[in-house]
Amino acid sequence: MLKKRFSLIALIAVFALIVAACSSDSEETTTTTAAPAEEEMVDTSVLDLAVEAGQFSVLIAAIEAAGLGETLEGEGPFTVLAPTDAAFEAALEALNLTAEELLANPALSDILLYHVLGQAADSSAVAALDGSSVATVQGEEISITVDSGTIFINETAEVVSADLAADNGIVHVINQVLLPPTVAQALGVAAPEETTTTTVAETTTTTEAPAEPTIAEIVVELASGDPAEFTTLLAAVQAADPAVLEALSDPSQELTVFAPTDAAFAAIPEDVLAGILADQELLTNILLYHVAPGVFLAEDVVAAAPIEALPTLLEGETLSIEVVDGSVVINGEATVIQTDVLASNGVIHVIDTVLQP
Prior knowledge:
The protein is of the alpha+beta class. It folds into two domains: 46-207, Roll (FAS1 domain); 215-351, Roll (FAS1 domain), CATH 2.30.180.10. It is built from 15 helices and 17 strands.
């Protein structure tokens, strides 16, 4: 439903994970991965965790084949969705492939990268994205749902072991192999027009992606929720120049919105707030001041902070951003209290104070 776009800082993260069934008399093979010449190594990497888990019998050989060992031993951060041996055995059977054929498949790199997010996200952070779609390092998206406390990827791949923490990221073990939609199409797993997210298990499942809401639609949804939030913001958008609503509703836009809560608006003296809501020009300027062109995700804002002058849609006006005691603060007064509410046309960060141009 929701999707990530681009970030201020290019995320460099790759992952390789492929498992082949091994007979009971197979010899155990270990391989030492050389450290990158210019990248600081970590004591315990996501690769180390995958090896130590004992569920990935030919992991090292597969990583070497993909040439990705050095990266996985690097700083990260990564979130790795790691299929078990049984998951790969089922996938190979469903695809009618041998392990050797899959290792030699040109799509192998895409399959591996589809199991990686370019950030560290523990299970609570992943669960908070229930109903969302998230971009992988490969470029295509996975969907996240939570059912009775269990996290599912692409509807059917279950997170069976979570929060294996490494120095350069987190590993979550899943019980199915994920296939990027384009790869699934190439392998004949599902019809192109039907496939948006795909997993491969003992049977093959395809699902249709739900419609992606715009920023405006998310604000409306939250304003009518229980408990309701953003009711004043919604009323302000509706009272402002129609161009504001049009921008927030346009799926072709790429915007970052700093959205004040109802409590933030309530902190303004009642008579002053009433005057603002009644003055369309002033109200429009205030709302435009809360919107920046481009999609800036929380981790990238933090990485780039301090930002002295982030342009806004209010011509000539900018925002300053800094990190204070671990919190992102806008203009030295508004604290970001919720991040990365993702929409088809951008991202919303919730703030506790109304910004004044």
